[in-house]
Every structure is written in C-alpha cells, then in structure tokens.
TrEMBL record:
It comes from the Bacteria. Pfam families: CdiI_ImmP (PF24172). This is Uncharacterized protein.
Amino acid sequence: MSVLFDEALDALKEVRVLADDESRKVMDQFVSSFPIRTSGSGGIDWNKVEKKVLLSCIEEISNQINLTLSDSCFVIWNDAAHPIIETTVGSIVKVFDDVTAVSFDTWIFIPKNNNVIESTPSSLRMTTFF
C-alpha cells in the first residue's frame, strides 16, 4: 500500500477494505456493467455509454442523478496494489481529492443504481443510469 492510500482511508473514516474474494466479485460486477476499453488505460469506453455527463466538480453529482449521500459505493483504483474499498457517496464527496490522489484513474462504482464516476487526470465523468 502507499502513504496516499492510508491518508485516503484516514480521511474517509467510515470505510471497509474488501478481502480479495469480495474485491473479485465487485470487479466482475463492475466490468460486466460498463464497456471497458481494451487498449490504453483500460478505463470506461465512454463512446459506448449513452447516458453520461461530464462534471466540473464532484459536488455536481447530486444535481445529475438520483443518489443519496448514504448510498454505498466501491472505490476502484487503476493500481491493483490498492484493494477495493467500500464507503458511502457522501464520504467520497467530502474527501474526493484524498481518494483520487491514490492513483491516476479512480472509479466510484455505485451498484444500487448501476452508476459509475470515473476520475482521470483530464476529466470527471459519470453515467446517468437510474
């Protein structure tokens, strides 16, 4: 793990680090829910996502989709050295910079309504399925 990962966990406060078997299940659900690029960074292929929005800041999510801050979400980083964690949307919004500093690309997967927020160095996008 890394110092930035530890700092993100400390900032989130209420967080659960998933075991390997749980992480695999979440990752399988994530990959089967969204079109993943097979080249480059392996992020979401946004050209294949019909309902999406480009956000200028994380606080805009409440204006875009039907989410409550208490909704559970999983944080997935592109660096596989970091385990998947579970927390709430509200916790992510409060310390978003700490969470996204852990790795270049970060996905916040919200299974309740099958949404994802993708944060990369160049953009912040999310699906708008609900």
